[in-house]
Amino acid sequence: MALVSLRDVSKTYPPSSRNGSPVTAIDHVSLDVEEGDVYGIIGYSGAGKSTLVRLVNSLETVTSGSIQVDGIEVSDLRERELQKLRLGIGMIFQQFNLFSSKSVWKNIAYPLEVARTPKAEIMARVEELLSFVGLTDKAKNYPEQLSGGQKQRVGIARALATSPRILLADEATSALDPETTQEVLALLKRVNEEFGVTIIVITHEMDVIQTLATKVAVMDGGRVVEQGDVFDVFSRPREASSKRFVSTVVRGIPSPTELAVLRERHEGRIVTLSFRDGNTSQGDVFLRLAQAGIAFELVYGGINDIRGQVFGHLTLALRGDPPTIDAALADLATTVEITDLGITGDETGV
Amino acid sequence: MDDLIQLLPKLGQATVETLYIVALSLLFGGIGGLLVGLGLYTTRPGNLYSNRLVYGVINVIVNVFRPIPFIIFLAAAQPLARLVVGTGIGNTAIIFTLSLAATFGISRIVEQNLLTVQPGVIEAARSVGASRVRIIRTVVIPEALGPLLLGYTFVFVAIVDMSAVAGYVGGGGLGTFAIQYGYRQFNPIVTWAAVLVIILIVQAVQFFGNWLARKALRR
Q1: I want to staple A90 with a disulfide (CB 3.0 to 4.6 A). Which of A159, A328, B195, B206 is the partner?
Q2: Are A301 and A314 in contact (CB under 8 A)?
Q3: pLDDT (tens digit, 9 = 90+) per residue, B27-65?
Q4: Which chain A residues touch B134 with a CB distance below 8 Å?
């Protein structure tokens, strides 16, 4: 039984003007988030991902379909029961949404006060959380005195205060610079690994998915167009929007314009070798090319590591005796995927 | 000048009366305005108790009563004052009518200031399971406290202004004093003395309000 399970969920907003048509934000989405997952949901703005995550803690209500959290049908709950459910689901936000009138300490204590935790326990828990996010010395400060990264760390501490099993992260790093983003992502990784908190991450940055997620769903126009293990989606994206997202972090097969540039600079036969299985050795491939007496130059591409599994696309310019190259490529084709981009000046190969 | 010195005890009494009228009107009108303002804010479409009908009704009532010039409102609401506080004249009647008028004025100021609270902050409070009443009490009002205090300071000055017509229904205070002993006696120095006292009161309260708001905003 999945911890969070969406079945055929749709969300439609009433038309904004009298003659307008209703807006479908979520269109028949089904997905399962297992306990311990870091589930990434990626899409461009307007793809419906923020609405989707708000359905899980019922900040938004579904129009149709079923959402179960830990086996409980969320849409059946009354306001009071929802409040109890929400104590078990933490949430962090792009704009942090800290209470500006409360100190860091009071911000983190807030969910505990809502949960009517005894004072002594609140004291202990807040201290513990402050030390976890490394802000013990900022307890008395107010949010406006903190940097963006510190604010999000307070947000994380607040979201974890009641020890929820699920954490929803809505574009949690989109307002942060790259370095701070990595800090916050590292912290979220610890939240998942040390406390076993299941995390649902909403983002438009593939980088976030690559660093953090174990599973990913790609959203486009309110629908989930592709979902699965991060490695599978990264190494073999099927849908156009998935491919576009993957191309933001992975250099794949050069596009025609990129190929034209490569051809100007490099001579010889240009081929792309795609390593997709995570177990093909690049060293072995290079060794075999060298042994066949083929001169090669790496002209484009890169190798990626997702949770220890390696994949990538390397584009090489090969020079040597054409029949030898043909033979070597035929040999290599048994272990790696080869895309032959042809010889400079000979476009027929493309 | 001699007249003024003779009138000093009366000026003192008028000052006390103005402070009495204004303080009680601000108290009752402040509470009433806070409640009506919260009603406007919370029932506004998309907010915590989103209810188009209730919002529309409150909105229309406030819009109908707020722009009525106070001196006309004072006369028009006299039967209501008689009904509620038992008299249509004197300080008690003026406090009642002033509180009522202030309620409508303050409700708009409260609504406007509460609307500046970031919706995301309210969402954050909802996401940890806070009830709506708790959110209003522990998030919405504290987050808007600085501007609210400034709004109330502004209203205090407006109430001082409105209280000056108390004389029309037999009430006292600095307005009555200035008209009765200054204007009608062709004694501008007496009028100016009342003006000076009002300036001092307003300055002191504005100063205090700014100080409180600064404390609330920690700036």
Answers
A1: A159
A2: yes
A3: 999 999 999 999 999 999 989 999 999 999 999 999 999
A4: 114
Report pLDDT digits (tens) over A200-247.
Answer: 999 999 889 988 999 999 999 999 999 999 988 888 888 888 888 888
Domain locations along chain B: 20-173
- Whether B130 and A115 lie within 8 Å, measured CB to CB: no
Q: Is A288 in the same domain as A229?
A: no
Domain that holds residue A308: 256-349
Residue A47 burial class via C-beta count within 10 angstroms: exposed 0-12, middle 13-18, buried 19 and up:
buried
Interface test with A, best of B47, B128, B132, B218 (most A CBs within 10 A): B128
Give the CA distances from residue A101 to residues A108, A114, A122, A302, B129, in Å, rounded to whole numbers and listed in that order: 13, 17, 19, 48, 19
ipTM confidence score: 0.87
B122, B127, B149, B212: best to mutate for the A interface, most A CBs within 10 A: B127
Tell me what pLDDT residue A198 has.
Answer: 97
Residues of chain B whose C-beta is under 8 A from some C-beta in A? 118, 120-121, 123-132, 134, 138-139, 142-143, 145, 216, 218
